[in-house]
């Protein structure tokens, strides 16, 4: 451009610098009653730059043609007959500069919530670039404008449209790196004097960061399109690139890595899940060291910053809890027999397979995508060593996983106190309870197993009874059901212990009293759950909603079973218990007969209920006959 070194061109460069400063720096201090003041000023400067560029272009056109209008020379011809300019040609550079101003105007309008105007400017940028081939002069702009359009359409929940723009940006990057790969011109350099041009290193960093944003946005789009595997892949690559470029906010990065771990956990990919969580733990420790400019903006005041750190570290701790809980629960599924007890043959088989797996583990680690440089990798590996990523196969291994999970429970509860974070605090307690339940499966000593379940009752029962049903009805229902099931498990264990210890089938009075207490406590909480479904006048619903259908019918079935198991030597009490049992079994059968959709939901319970509806009247009649004979 002939005017490139002129006074006028330096004025354009100065305006651009001022516009950038207004947008990136001064806008942060705009008053609440005029939040876009600096960005509006930046917009005016960008418009002036656009007019100057058009004026330069017109002047150069006249100079080239001796004062007569002329068409630009073409470097090539597109199939549709329209001119395609070389991206490196003077005409191509002029188009790129105009496109860049359109791009910045588009971003400005989007930032000030004027989406339609923003879309128009971004589309204008695309049209200008559409005349050009991709080159080192404009490839960065090609990618930035598609990123921005991807964000805009994703914000409108038009995910397929956003996907198209972002995948095109990805293809442009890959093609450019394959065919050229040199550090491309950054868009800001279009409006920079020669002495202020970027170094090759800075150009590379900015270009790679633009592509990192493409991958980040694609991860979000794929997630919204429920393409979870692709979303996870792009998310992990994004996180790795952010580390390599040293462009990340530590706590934000750590939280994203911890969130990614939850995807891997649900897929049973515990090696990847553990690696993500270990990396999150290490990187969250960098939060006070501020490794990048982005980290310096994590919070506006020191107190806010400390609060954010505490919260996000507590959230990472909760992800660790779920890792440990799921690992134990999945191990149980592998090891339990058809009645829910430890299958020792299966256990030995899996231990033999484990020895082969351990030989393959290191090979698998080397093939996985890992976070960090050599420096951080050692730190991440040291965290990984503290917890298994293979399924625990005995009590010792299960306890080691449990203790890690319990340690993170303590950390999470330090932030999520009951006073102020009721829902979060209770969810953490429920996870703690689930850790105890999963560990109990591996415990061979039935008395110790029972004590583990008692710990679950001790942590959940006071909260269940204190919670206000008006505000926390759904949570109370969850707690009621879990307490009912826990008391039932304890009842079965106490009976098993008593039967092992007794030389005959008879039980002593203390054991019977303890058994009946646990049985009645289970009935109590199942009944509380059922009562919570009643209308204000105490009427049980004629039609059960889908979200409570199975829990309600299972609760009825379990109450029926428990009433039948209560031990009493008094015939009238026996009769009362059996009649209550029969009433609940009948309810399950009759509800499923009148609501066909319910039968498949409780198939096993329904079959047993039908059987008991046929058997219990015989037992009731025998007791009645015995009572009549005694009278």
Automatic annotation (TrEMBL):
Q: Name one Pfam family in it.
A: KBP_C
Q: Which Gene Ontology CC terms are recorded?
A: cytoskeleton
Going by the entry's taxonomy, the superkingdom of the source organism is recorded as Eukaryota
Alphabetic keyword roster: Cytoplasm, Cytoskeleton
Q: Where is this region: Disordered?
A: 58-88, 345-366
InterPro entries, from UniProt?
KBP, TPR-like_helical_dom_sf
Gene3D superfamilies given in the database record? Tetratricopeptide repeat domain
Basic and acidic residues bias (residue ranges): 72-82, 345-365
Q: Which GO terms describe its biological process?
A: central nervous system projection neuron axonogenesis; microtubule cytoskeleton organization; neuron projection maintenance
Localization in the cell: Cytoplasm, Cytoskeleton
Query: Which family is this protein grouped under?
Result: Belongs to the KIF-binding protein family.
User: What task does this protein carry out?
Assistant: Activator of KIF1B plus-end-directed microtubule motor activity. Required for organization of axonal microtubules, and axonal outgrowth and maintenance during peripheral and central nervous system development.
Q: What is this protein called?
A: KIF-binding protein
Gene (name only): kifbp
